[in-house]
Here is the input.
Amino acid sequence: MLVSVKWLYENLNEVKILEIDFDPEINYYEGHIPSALLLPWKSLLHDKIRDFAPPEKFSKVLGNLGVKEDDLIVLYSDMGNRYAFYTYWLMKAYGHENVAILNGGIYKWLKEGYPVENEPTFPSKKSNYIVKRVDWSSRILLWELLSKLNSIELIDARNREEYEGLTSAPPEHKCEQTQVSGHIPNAKNIPWTILFNEDGTLKGREELEKIFSSINKDKEIVVYCRTGARASAVWYVLKEVLSYKNVRLYDGSWVEYGNLVGVPIER
Here is the structure.
């Protein structure tokens, strides 16, 4: 589920490497890991509504990249690797179990001096990828969230300024303000950035356990941020690293909640 840059370098030809970019025109073409295929984040979204791509589109997107259902996929992304974690969560929901995160992402790769390429990589041929099952048990929608506000553990993965209501958007998306600022009642602020070392790799298990020591692991845990990307890294740590049993992502997050009329908000 988590591979090192050294391991990936030694296994470049044995895996499918996908670079997930929010802004592919800036990042992928400036330099990418050799043999990495470009997967724009927006290609994983629904064409008409705010939701993820339906299984048919998801299948076509991966098929066009030559990915097969049993391929080991290694993900990394721009913006602190957040979209790698988000894509991991989505792939798990769509039944692709053989998927891993590059620990530290492109930043760690460059820091260690591994080679990059500027020319795009294209698949040798397309595949007939088919999503065989969909499992949204790790997702929670607004109506269910509102019915459980007093019974669940809520984690707000945004930065402190967003949580306290000083701003409703992070610096990288400062033009995308919501109608109101603040946080969902009873949410605990655990900014996603504290999960990582200076080189972008995840902290060790013992450190991560200390970070989440105030969270009751026996309760249902819901994580959110602004759009779900940063919170997906928290979901990954809780679910895949620390083995918490009941962790769900509220991907509607503050973009949805902060624009609703009449819902409770704390500052």
Remarks:
- The chain has a mean pLDDT of 96.
- The first strand starts at residue 2 and ends at 3.
- The chain has two domains: 2-111, 142-257.
